[in-house]
Structure formats: structure tokens, C-alpha cells
Design goal:
By secondary structure, the chain is an alpha/beta fold. The protein has 2 domains: about 10-325 and about 400-500, ANL, N-terminal domain (Rossmann fold), CATH 3.40.50; about 520-640, GMP Synthetase, Chain A, domain 3 (2-Layer Sandwich). It is built from 19 helices and 32 strands. Strands 5-4-19-18-20-21-22 form a 7-stranded mixed β-sheet, sandwiched between helices. The chain has a 5-stranded parallel β-sheet with strand order 7-6-8-11-12, with helices on both faces. The protein is globular. The chain starts with 9 loop residues before the first helix and ends with a helix. Bound molecules: 5'-O-[(S)-butoxy(hydroxy)phosphoryl]adenosine. 5'-O-[(S)-butoxy(hydroxy)phosphoryl]adenosine (WT7) binds near residues 304, 498, 499, 511 and 525. 5'-O-[(S)-butoxy(hydroxy)phosphoryl]adenosine binds next to helix 11, strand 22, strand 26 and strand 27.
Length: about 650
Amino acid sequence: MSYPYQIRSFDEYQVAYRVSVNEPEQFWASVANNFYWRKKWDKVLEWNFKEPNVKWFQGAQLNITENCIDRHLKELGDKPAIIWEPNNPEDRTRIVTYNRLHKRVCQVAQMLKNNGVKKGDRVCIYMGMVPELAYAVLGCARIGAVHSVIFGGFSAQSIADRLEDAQAEYIITCDGAFRGGKDIPLKSVIDDALVGNKKIKRVIVYTRTRTPVSMIKGRDVWWEEEMEHAETQVEKDGAVSFPAEVMDAEDPLFILYTSGSTGKPKGVVHTVAGYMIWTTYTFVNTFQYKPGDIYFCTADIGWITGHSYIVYGPLCAGATSMMFEGIPTWPDAGRFWDIVDKYKVNILYTAPTAIRSLMGFGLEPVKGKDLSSLKVLGTVGEPINEEAWHWYDENIGKKKCPIVDTWWQTETSGIMISNLAGITPAIPSWASLPLPGVQPVLVDENGNHLPEPKEGEIVSGNLCMKAPWPGIIRTTYGDHERCRKNYFATYENLYFTGDGALKDAKGNYRITGRVDDVLNVSGHRIGTAEVENAINMHAGVVESAVVGYPHDIKGQGIYAYIIFNGKHGDDELTRKDILQTVSRIIGPIAKPDKIQFVPGLPKTRSGKIMRRILRKIAEGETSNLGDITTLLDPAVVDQIKNNRV
Ligand code: WT7
């Protein structure tokens, strides 16, 4: 594998950036020429942000799995595509070569076909981090089914909502998943999600934990049995084949649900060709991947980071991508460093929250671990504070590894603003420069473009994009209007990210965080409205307001103010009940860190909750609350202030 589009110097970056802005069609066509197409495009780009309507590589035909797997077989067939590290370090590692991956993905495709799955059908995947999860994702892509992976931490209710929204008919799951000392009963959660569901035709269950499960006749089948049957179908005379479905460039590849400022998560849709080009291009350039490098992204495939930078981007580049089943702190806080040492990892991509949590264990877990294989470090998911950045740089990278701080979103599908490892300068806590194809603009509240900062100046505004890149969100599943309203209607002719940012005179960006009612808890996106809806389901709750506050490890914590009317025997018990409710409705990741019972909420005369005040109190700021004279009942603020938790 070689990457003619790999940027190798700062000058090359500047040239690439300039061409990508001035002649985007020519630029992306020349990148796309390095991929495998069944038929090339008639037109590189057509777009407007009004509807929005964005089409890349119209007329082209391809299958992304032929790019991720088949085209590598001749050169890389015996090289590892996926290296899997199990939850328990004493268990057997699995090394999946490109040949083996090809065989497994063909088998899954055949298995899906045998079970009635066709192009365009939605398949929900709810599994732990086992290689079979990657096979399942790629198997769907091979037959043109639209996968929708749901993170293993979401509750039955969340799954039910997503199944309904996606109109899914098929599910692939596991009996259970190992995560640290825990064994999570995934199939039983699926069973709860399916009570009353009449649409699901088939549930395929992979055995991982041997947790007892109930299999429903006519609906549930075992992965192992189905795969065995499929194996004889795809393998003839020692050769393996399952023809890849020929997809149009703009056919949907997957749906991934993410939180917004309303109570209901949105199904972000990405399409085949643009997504492929964007994830591969950004993977190769940001991390400066060189053939043979061992690359380890610690994310879960249930999130966009896992989709783009464990599965599609790396595999399309013919890379060796590690998959880790467990958690960073089990059996102890040295687990990441053990893995780096054991496999001689060259590139490590993780989240600031993980770094901060590991920092808390001191240097003992790092001692004696050989980290000399590391060349590049990366972070993603939230702003990285300088302290964590320096800890990562000094103790993990030993000041020899560039750190890429990659800013992007589920909706952008791949990295948008980041330094390129060793090519463009790293600035602690700044995501820095836009990748080629990315055209950020900062606007004020009214959508006015901010003036370019002069030397020594820094401007601050809302971060938007003024032109499409290949991996931009195409729609929100089943509701295009929602996509328009959410991202393309706030400011005319701009895609609005929901983030605030600073910009300096050199063109560097520093992301300051969400400016909407979306929280970022341990790098996971959670809408305040979603959490409020869940809390309000509790029979004793009259009303609630949820805000974020700075949290040492999670980045943001969840602070809930609740008016409680139910039987108030014991505050602690009531708190537990409410946490249990949130766990049931959304999942444990959305549980508030702090709950304060309040007699009322600060509201304006028109009934709007003044979140600004609640945010300040949650942050510990009690003296400088700004103007509260417009409140209906200013006295309530004192009561809230005096009873902070
Ligand atoms: C939001 C997107 C990107 C994949 C994982 C999260 C925040 C992400 C950074 C960064 C500052 C960041 C933004 C963004 N964010 N990366 N490097 N610096 N903030 O994807 O769940 O779609 O969340 O995460 O606020 O909007 P997501």
C-alpha cells in the first residue's frame, strides 16, 4: 500500500489546503483515484446548504468492503488487519489477517442473506468489542444493508426507540459482553427492548460470555450455527467468495444515533463513497500512518470514532488496527501501557477523559512498561486541558511523539481540525489547523462573519463550515427537515457545528465546547433535554433542569435540579431511585453526578428556565449571577444557592 495523497511537509499541507479550497473537484477526484471503483463518477460534487443537498462522486459505483479488504489481499493477505486484545489479559489474543477478515466478512454477508437481509435493510448491531462486531459491520456493508450500531451502555428503552426510528428488522447481538470485572447481559437487554416490537424478524446471537439467554423460537438464531452453514456456501475448492453488492456513491452506509438539544437522538446518515474517502484520507494524513505501523484506537465501535478510526479508515488504508475488548483500568490502571508494550504499538489514539483518569493513578502503572515503539499520540472527543496534554506528552510520548488533538463530530464522520503528526505544529489544547477540504468560519450570534484576527489577536465565535467535505452528514434518518433545521438553518448557507471556538492570526482553532444544550461527559454526547425527560419519568418528579459543570475526570459532569413532590422519606433513597430511572430510560452513561432537590426553578416571566444561573451555581459560582431581576421569583435563587450539593 502506498498513499500518494499523504502530506509529507508543511509546504505540502499548504499546497494541498489551497488546492482543496480553490479546486475541490479536481482535488478530491485525484484522491479518489487511489480507491477501487466498479465505475467512476460522472460528477465529483453537487451541493447546496439550503435543502441541504450534498452529493459526492455521483454516478460512481463501488463497495466499501472491496476497498477495505479485497483490494489488499494480493499484497497484504497474510498481514494482520485486526489485532484483538481480550478483556482478560490471560485469554488468547486473536490476530485476524486480511485473508481471514475477507473470509469472515463473506461468511457474515452470506449469513445475513440466508436470514433474509437485503440491500437497504436496517440491521441493528448491539455487541461488545469482539472481532465479530467488525465482521458484522463489514458484512452489512458487503450486502448493502444499512448498519446501526448501538453502544453497549444504552438501555433497552434507548434501543427500542432507535429500532423504531430506524425501522430496523434485524439485530446482531451477543449473549453478553466482558468489560473489566463486569459481564453485561446484552441479549437480555435486547429481549427487553423487543417486548411488543413486531418489526424485528431475526436476532442473531454470538456467544461470548456464556451468560444464560432465552432464545425465542422463529426469531432468534445462533451466530455460530449460521456461520458454519454460511462457511460451506462461501468456500469452494479452497477459494472464498461472496460477491459484494454494487452500491451507488450516495447509497447510505450506516445510521448512527447521536444526541442533540432536543429530547430525541438523531439518526445521522453517512453514505458510501464520501465517507470512505474522508475517513481514509484523514486517517493517513492526521496520524501519518506508514505501512506496517501498529495502530491502536481505544474507542468503542458503538461510537463514530470506532466506525471511522477502528474499522473503515484504517482498513481502507490496509493498516493494522487494534481492537480492545476491555477498559483502561482493569485489571489495573496499566492496561493501555501493557498493550502498547505487548504489541509494540506505534500510534495510540485515545480520549482526554481516559488520560485524566489514568493520570489520577500516578506513574506507578507506567513504570517498567516499554513504550518506545510509540511514534504518534492522538486525542479525541473533548477539549484536552493542558495538564493532561503535558502528562501524555511527558510520560507516554516521552516528549518524542507528536500529539494530534483531533476535533470532529459524528456528523462530520472524520477528523476536521487537527495538527498532522510531525508535519504541522502541535499547540497544547488547540486543535490547530483545518484539514484540506475543511473551510471553517467563525460567526457571532447573528451569523455575522467575524473579522480575521490580526497578529497577536484572538477572536471567539460559533464554529461553522462554509463548504461541504466528502464526509459531511447527508440527512437524519427518516426526517430530512430535522437535519436542515438542526445544522443548516441557524446561519444561512453554513453548516453549524454547535461548538464555540477561538481563532488566532495563524489560522489555528481552539475548540471551547458546546454552545447548545448538549453535554460532553467523558467524551460522550448527551442532551440535557434527554436527561430531563428521563428524570421526569420518575413518578415523584414535578420538573427538572439539567446542566453541565466542570468535572476533573469526565470533562463535564451532569448536575440535576429537581422539584420533587413524591414521598420524600430519605433524600439518598430518592436519589438512587432517580438514578435508576435514568439508567433504565437512557443508560448508565447519562446518570447525573449530582442531584439537588429544589423548591422551584429560576424562570423568566414567560416561563423559560434561566439555565445560565443554574450553570453558574453548579460551577460553584454563587456571587456573580448576573441580572436576576427578570425572574418570576428571584427568592428561589437564594434557596438553590444555599443548598448546593
Ligand atoms: C463533539 C462531538 C469526534 C468523535 C467523538 C465525539 C467535542 C470532539 C474534540 C476536540 C474539543 C471536541 C465537540 C464536538 N469534541 N473532539 N478534539 N476538542 N472538543 O463525537 O459524540 O459526535 O461529539 O465532541 O464538542 O461537537 P460526538
